[in-house]
Amino acid sequence: MDFFSLIMLLGGLTFFLYGMNVMSSSLEKMAGGRLEELLRKMTAKPLLSMALGAAITIAVQSSSATTVMLVGLVNSGILQFSQTIHIIFGANIGTTLTAWITGFSGLQSENFWLQMLKPKNFSPLLAFAGILMIMFSKKDRKKSIGTVFVGFAVLMYGMDMMASAVSPLAHTPIFESLLVQLQNPILGVLIGMLFTAVIQSSAASIGILQALALTGSISYGMALPIVMGLNIGTCATSLISCIGTNVKARRVAVLHVSIKILGTIICLSLFLGWNAIFRWSFVEKPLAPWDVALLHTIFNLATTVILLPVNRQLISLTERLVKDRRPVAVPAADIPLLDERLLRSPSVAVSESFHVSKAMCRQAREILDLSMSEFQQYDGGVEVQVLQAEDRLDRFEDRLGTYLVKLSAQALSRQDSQVVSKILHAIGDFERLGDHACNLTKVAKELFDKQIGFSAQAGEEIAVLSAAIAEILDLTSQAYMESDVELAARVEPLEQVIDQLIAQIRDHHIRRLQQGACTIEGGFILADLLNNYERISDHCSNVAVAIIEVEHNSFDTHKYLNGVKYGNSVFNEIYDVFDKKYTL
After folding, report:
1. 3-state secondary structure of 454
2. Phi, psi of 286 (to 5 degrees)
3. Confidence class of residue 313 from pLDDT cuts 50, 70 and 90?
C-alpha cells in the first residue's frame, strides 16, 4: 500500500463521513419536531420504548446522535434518567441498518437485478434523481429527499474509494503481520474501540471493516472482537457531550457505555468459551461485507436480550458509578433549561424552544390575572409576586432569544424556520405583557394608598373593558399554545373593539370631569389604567398576527392588518359579535 493509496483511504473516509452527515441531517429535517414528540411519549413499556429508540436512530442514522439527544433532554429535565435505558437498547439495534446497506457492496452475481442491489450500481441513479429534485422542486420536503439521495451516493462513493484503497493490502507483508496480531481478541477490541472513538462514527468503522473484508483476509474470529470494540468506541461522542451537564445527564452517557462494555465482556467470553469447546470451523474462514453487518446486528441483539431483564440493576449500577455528591435544588418556577446539545438535533431544539415559549406565555397570562385582580380586592403581597414573575419573564426572553439566534444558524426545515420566526416575534410581546402587569399593580397600589375611587359609571365601564381584556388574553394564549390560526383570527377584531371601548371611556371621563362627577387626580390614574390596557391588547394583536403570518410565510404586519380591517366580511362578522358583547 503506497502513499497514494493512503490518500485515497483518507479521501474515501472523508466522503463517507460527509455523506453520512448530509443524509442524517436531511432525514432529521424531514422528521421535524416529530422526533421530540416521540421521545416525549416514552412510556414504561419496554418494547414500545425500544421500537421508538430504533425508529429515531434510523431517522437520524446515528446511535450517538440519539444518545446525545437523550443527554440533552435529561439535562433539561424533559426526560427522566430511568426512561432512557430502553431507548438506548433500541438505538443500538437501529444503528445496524447502515451496516446492512453498505454490506451489499460485496454482492457478487451475474444476474442483472442482483447486480443492481449493489449500492455502487444504483447510488449514481439516486444521486441523479436527487440533484434533479434539489434543482427543480419547489417543495422543501422534496428537496430534503433529494439531499438524502445525494448524501447516500456520496457515502457509497466514499465506501467504494476505501475498498479500492485497501485492496492492495491483501498480499503485503505489513498487513499480514498485522493480521497475526488481530488474532488476539483483546487487541481487536482495543483497535476497534480506539479507532471509532477518534472518528466518532461506528458506521464509518464498520464501512472500513467491510472494505477490508473484500480483500478476503479478515476472518470471523478477527472481525467479531473488532465489531465489539467499535460498539464501545461509538460511546465517545455521548461521553464528550455529557461534560458540564447535571448528574442525571452524565448517567445517560455512562449507562450507554456500560451496556456496550458489559455486552462485550459477556458475548466475547461466551464466544471464546464455546469456540474452545466446539472448535467452530467458520471462525477461521474469511467473511463478506454483509457478514460484518450480521455480526454487528447479532452482537447488539444479543446484548439487548441478555441485559434487558436486568435493566433495573443496570440503572442502580450507573447511579452508584455516578453519584450525586452535591444535589442542587432547582425551584420549580425557575427558567426551563435549553441545552445547547440539542442544537445537534435542530428539530428537537425547535420543539423544545416552543415548549419553553409556551411556559413564558402562561407566565405572562398568570401575572396579568394577578395584577388585574388587585382592582377588585387589593393585596399588597401580589405586587412582590408579580415583580418576581416579571423578572423571570425577562430572563425567559434573554435566554430563549440567545438560544434561538444560535438555533437559526442551524440547517432548519421550512416548518421549523417558521416556528423559530413565530417564537422570536412573540417572546418580546410576552415580556412586555409582564411589564404592563407590573404597571397595573402600581396603578392599583396608587388607588389604594390615596384612597381614590372611581365613580359608579366609571367602575361599570372599567368592568366591561376588563372582561374584554381577559378574553383577548385567553384567545391569544390559547391560539399561541395550540398554534390555532382560527382563534388567532378572532384577536384583531376584539382588539379593535377594545380600542373603541377605551376611546369611549376617555370621552365619558372628560364629560364627567366637566360635570364635576370625577376628579382630576382620579383621571390621571384612569389614564394610566387605560394606557396599559390598550398596550396589552396591542401586544396580543402582535402575537396573533405572528401566528397567522407564519402560516402564510410572511411577516408584513401592516399589509395583513390592512387586509383584514378593510372589506373583509369575516373580520366584520367577528367584530360585530364582540361589539355587541362589550357595550358600555
Report:
1. coil
2. -70, 150
3. very high
Question: 229 and 365: one domain?
Answer: no
The verdict on 391 and 259 lying in the same domain is no
Last residue of a domain, one of 321, 353, 387: 321
Q: Is residue 329 part of a domain?
A: no
Cα–Cα distance for residue pair 460/441, rounded to 1 Å: 20
Q: How many domains does the chain have?
A: 2
Residue 105 lies in a domain: yes
Residue 206 lies in a domain: yes
Residue 169 has pLDDT above 80, yes or no: no
Listed residue (549, 570, 458) closest to 506, CA to CA: 458
DSSP E strands, 186-225:
none
Same domain, 233 and 120: yes
CATH number reported for the structural domain that contains residue 346 in this entry: 1.20.58.220
Same domain, 20 and 149: yes
End residue of a domain, out of 252, 286, 321: 321
Count of other CB atoms within 10 angstroms of residue 471: 19
Q: C-alpha cell of 483?
A: 398554534
Where residue 329 falls (left for φ over 0; alpha for ψ -120 to 50; beta otherwise) is beta
The per-residue pLDDT for 511 is: 85
341, 376, 430, 496, 503 from 534: Cα distances, Å: 41, 20, 15, 10, 10
Pair (130, 166) in one structural domain: yes
Find out whether 484 and 478 touch, Cβ atoms under 8 Å. yes
pTM of the full structure? 0.70
Alpha helices in 280-345 (DSSP H): 289-307, 311-321
Print the domain residue range for 215. Answer: 3-321
pLDDT average, residue stretch 165-172? 67
Q: What is the pLDDT of residues 350-371, one digit of tens each?
A: 888 898 899 899 999 999 999 9
Residue 355 and residue 257 share a domain: no
3-state secondary structure 413-442: CHHHHHHHHHHHHHHHHHHHHHHHHHHHHH
Task: Single out the residue of 203, 19, 28 nearest to residue 120, CA to CA.
Answer: 19
Which H or E run contains 444?
A: helix 414-449
Q: Report how far residue 301's alpha carbon sits from residue 295's, in angstroms, rounded to the nearest whole number.
A: 10
- Burial class, 198, CB count within 10 angstroms (exposed 0-12 / middle 13-18 / buried 19+): exposed
Does residue 112 belong to any structural domain of this protein? yes
pLDDT of residue 452: 81
